[in-house]
Write a structure and sequence with these properties.
- The protein is an alpha/beta fold and about 375 residues long.
- The chain has helices spanning about 35-40, 45-60, 70-85, 95-110, 130, 155-165, 190-200, 270-285, 285-300, 325-335, 360-375, and strands at about 15-20, 20-25, 30, 90-95, 115-120, 150, 170-175, 205-210, 230-235, 245-250, 310-315, 315-320, 340, 350.
- It has 2 domains: about 15-45 and about 285-375, Aspartate Aminotransferase, domain 1, CATH 3.90.1150; about 50-285, Type I PLP-dependent aspartate aminotransferase-like (Major domain) (Aspartate Aminotransferase, domain 2).
- Helix 2 (about 45-60) packs antiparallel against helix 8, helix 3 runs parallel beside helix 8 and helix 9 (about 285-300) packs parallel to helix 11 (about 360-375).
- The N and C termini lie far apart (about 45 Å).
- The model has no long low-confidence stretch (mean pLDDT about 95).
C-alpha cells in the first residue's frame, strides 16, 4: 500500500519542534514562519499546552457528546471572556471545513433557503458545501457543484446589491482576511454594508475566522476590526495549536433543537484541553497584543525590501506581494535559509503566519534570510 498522492512534498522530515524552531531527521533546524497553515498559534510544544494535554490524557481522553463534559463549559466561559462574543452559543467540531459545513447547514435550516453568496478567491474548506463556496473549480467535484453558490467580486457594492435582490439566499460567507486567496480584505464599508443588508433581509452572515481567528489579526477575531456582528463565526486552525479542533459560534437568535447538528469526536476531552491551553497562553502571555505590535514591526521592516509591490494583512497574518512568482523563492528559503514560509492562490505572494509569541529578533532573522535570497 502507498499513500494517496495528493500533496506535493518538500524534502524535509521534521521530527521535533519547539517555539518556532523545527528540527528534521538530520538534526537541521528550520525557522517556522508558516505554522502549518496558521495552525501553530502559541508555538510548537509550548510547555503549558503539552502539560494540559498530558494531564488530561491521564484522566480521560474521549467520550461522546451523549454525556456531560465540564471542560466544554469551561471552554465556553474562557472563549466568551477573551473574544468578547457574549451573545453566542458554541458548537464544537473537528476542523475548519466541518465548521463551515455546519455553519452553512445551520443557515439553511434557519432561513429555509439554500443559495449562498461567496466571494472571489475565497477558501472555506474541502467538504460538500464548504468546497462549493470555495473559489477553485479544480477542487469542486460534480457532486459539490449541485450547491447553489453565487461568487461575487470582493468590495463590489453594485454586484452585491444586484445579487441580493432575488431574496432566495440563506447565507453570505466571508473571510475578514482571505487566507489561501492571498490576504485580500473587505473594506469596513463593504463589510458593514453586507452585515446591514443581511440583517434587513433575514440572511445569515457567516464570518469565516478559521485562519484569522484566535488573535492572529491583532484582535481576537478579524471581523472585529470592522465593528460588525456576524450571525455565525467559524473557528479552527490556531484554536488547537495542532490538535484537530473546530467550531462555530452561533448567535442566540438562531435556536437549537436536539439532533439539529452532531459530531462524534467534536468537543472531546483532549480537544477541549488543547483549546483551553491555547486560550490560557493567549491571555497569560498577552499574545494578541504581541501579534498586533509585531505585525506593525514586520510592515516597517518590509518597506526596506526590493521587488515588493504590496504588503498585505494584519497582525501576524501577513503577505508580501512581489513582482515575480514566489515558488522558487520558497524553495530557496527552505533549502538554503532553513525557513518555512507559505504560498497562496496569488502566485506572487509570500504568506507569513508565525506563532503569535515570536519576537522582533525572529522577524529580523526572517528579513536577513529573505534579503539574502533577493540579492
Amino acid at each position: 500500500m502507498k499513500l494517496f498522492d495528493v500533496y506535493p512534498l518538500y524534502d524535509v522530515s521534521p521530527v521535533s519542534a519547539k517555539g518556532i524552531e523545527v528540527v528534521d531527521e538530520k538534526g537541521d533546524t528550520y525557522l517556522d514562519f508558516y505554522g502549518g497553515h496558521a495552525v501553530i498559534s502559541i508555538g510548537h510544544s509550548h510547555p503549558h499546552y503539552v502539560n494540559r494535554i498530558k494531564s488530561q490524557l491521564d484522566k480521560i481522553g474521549f467520550y461522546s457528546n451523549s454525556i456531560q463534559n465540564p471542560l466544554q463549559l469551561e471552554l465556553v466561559e474562557k472563549l466568551e471572556k477573551l473574544s468578547n462574543c457574549k451573545d453566542y452559543n458554541l458548537f464544537l467540531c473537528n476542523s475548519g471545513a466541518e465548521a463551515n459545513e455546519n455553519a452553512l447547514k445551520l443557515a439553511s435550516f434557519h432561513t429555509g433557503r439554500s443559495k449562498v453568496i461567496a466571494f472571489g478567491n475565497s477558501f472555506h474548506g474541502r467538504t460538500s458545501a464548504a468546497v462549493a463556496t470555495t473559489d477553485n473549480p479544480a477542487i469542486n467535484a460534480p457532486i459539490n457543484k449541485q450547491q447553489q453558490v453565487t461568487f461575487l467580486p470582493l468590495n463590489d457594492f453594485e454586484a452585491f446589491e444586484k445579487a441580493i435582490q432575488t431574496n432566495d439566499y440563506c447565507a453570505v460567507i466571508l473571510e475578514a482576511i482571505q487566507g489561501v486567496g492571498g490576504l485580500d480584505e473587505p473594506t469596513t464599508e463593504f463589510f458593514q454594508h453586507i452585515a446591514e443588508t443581511c440583517k434587513a433581509n433575514g440572511i445569515v452572515l457567516i464570518a469565516d475566522e478559521v485562519q484569522s481567528g484566535f488573535g492572529r489579526s491583532g484582535k481576537f477575531f478579524a471581523f472585529q476590526h470592522h465593528d460588525i456582528q456576524p450571525d455565525i463565526i467559524s473557528i479552527a486552525k490556531g484554536m488547537g495549536n495542532g490538535f484537530p479542533v473546530g467550531g462555530i459560534l452561533i448567535h442566540e437568535s438562531i435556536k437549537a433543537s436536539y439532533g439539529l447538528l452532531g459530531t462524534t469526536f467534536g468537543g472531546n476531552h483532549l480537544a477541549c484541553a488543547a483549546t483551553l491551553a491555547v486560550l490560557e497562553v493567549l491571555e497569560d502571555e498577552n499574545l494578541i497584543k504581541n501579534s498586533r505590535k509585531l505585525g506593525e514591526y514586520f510592515m516597517e521592516k518590509a518597506t526596506e525590501l526590493p521587488h515588493v509591490k504590496k504588503i498585505k494583512g494584519r497582525g501576524l497574518m501577513l503577505g508580501l506581494e512581489f513582482d515575480f512568482e514566489v515558488a522558487d523563492l520558497r524553495k530557496r528559503l527552505i533549502h538554503k535559509q532553513h525557513l518555512f514560509a507559505g504560498g497562496s492562490k496569488n502566485k506572487k505572494l509570500l504568506r507569513i503566519l508565525p506563532a503569535l509569541n515570536i519576537t522582533k529578533s525572529h522577524i529580523d532573522l526572517f528579513f536577513d534570510a529573505l534579503k539574502q535570497e533577493l540579492v
